[in-house]
Amino acid sequence: MIAVWRALAGLAGAFVVVVTWGSVISTLVVPRRTRSSLGRLIDATVDRCFQFASKHTHSYEARDRRLAAQAPATLLVQLAVWLLLFGVGFTLLLWPFDGHGLAHAAAQAGSSLFTLGYSAPAGTRTTVVDYLAAASGLVVVALQIGYLPTLYGAFNRRETEVTMLTSRAGVPAWGPEILARTRYGFGDSSDGASLRQFYVDWERWAADVSESHTNYPILTRFRSPEPYSSWLVALVAVLDSAALWMAFSPDRAPATEARLCLRMGFIALRSIAATAGLPVDHDPDPDGPLQLTREEFLAGVDRMQTAGFAMDRTVAQAWPHFRGWRVNYEDVAYRLAARLDAVPAPWTGPRRTDDLEMSPSRPSNRVPTEAE
Q1: Each residue's pLDDT tens digit, 31-43
Q2: Counting beta carbons within 10 angstroms of the beta carbon of residue 167, is it exposed (0 to 12), middle (13 to 18) or buried (19 or more)?
Q3: Any idea where the domains of the chain sit in the sequence?
Q4: What is the DSSP letter of 241?
Q5: Cβ atoms of residues 108 and 126 within 8 Å
Q6: What is the pLDDT of residues 70-88, one digit of tens each?
Q7: What is the model's pTM?
Q8: How far is residue 356 from each of residues 33, 341, 344, 348, measured CA to CA in Å?
Q9: Residue 68 carries which DSSP code?
């Protein structure tokens, strides 16, 4: 009977090792979107812990400082869970061949997994398992170390454009603010060339973020260095600016660039949301309702009008066109913003907390009193 239990334990150990290797390979090696259940479980568990630790923090700034540690903590917990599962798996694999009991098998598995070498194998079969355990521990740690430069390289590429957006959109970013700060339409004959390259750059940026954040979902948890900046809020602001321009002044807007930026933007958001396990509507009704209220929309239009933005359509005429664009990305953007506790910027939906909406900061127009 004991032999049967040991044989079953060996099979269970082999299963644990294989499943763990599957999680490691899908997370660190395979360059495509995967659905690692173990990875999602780790992310959700760490997220709940950080939400519990932050739920009594009433200041967004303090909560942002705490949440900034969530992504590194998830990486460390992920590595610890993999090593723990390998330890359990190889312990169960060694037990049927080890004549000194389960505790000795666990010590031998740990010695091999961490390449400590204080417990030598006693036979051919245990030697094979020990070598497999040693290789597993070494390779997993090496892969995790090699994984970090890829993450931080993608993070730096992402944050460069987000930082550059500050002068155009304020902090936190807001779509109407981008158009207001272009000062487009003050009696000139410009065709929107100042933002034409802007939308080309953000189309490429959205493609890069879509590729990196679906292949390495932990990147969504990496927060911007500044507390009021957010890659998600920045993308929503850029998409809103393109949708507003196409809705109010389609003949003046850089139509091709704005449309391509919009499409790449909502494709990126849908891909990232699907990877995060959020529901995604891939074919929304262009006549469907928006969560953005009419009052919020009018406040944005007022900001554009105050700055002198040229509008060829009235609010009533532009609203259906704007709604037709925004319905493609609003729901997934709101869900992601709530999931990630992004800065509560205008037009980005509610959060899991009761943070008040923050308006974009606008620098004072200060000039020297004796300017020549």
Answers
A1: 777 667 888 899 9
A2: exposed
A3: 2-145, 165-340
A4: H
A5: yes
A6: 999 999 999 999 999 999 9
A7: 0.88
A8: 35, 13, 7, 12
A9: T
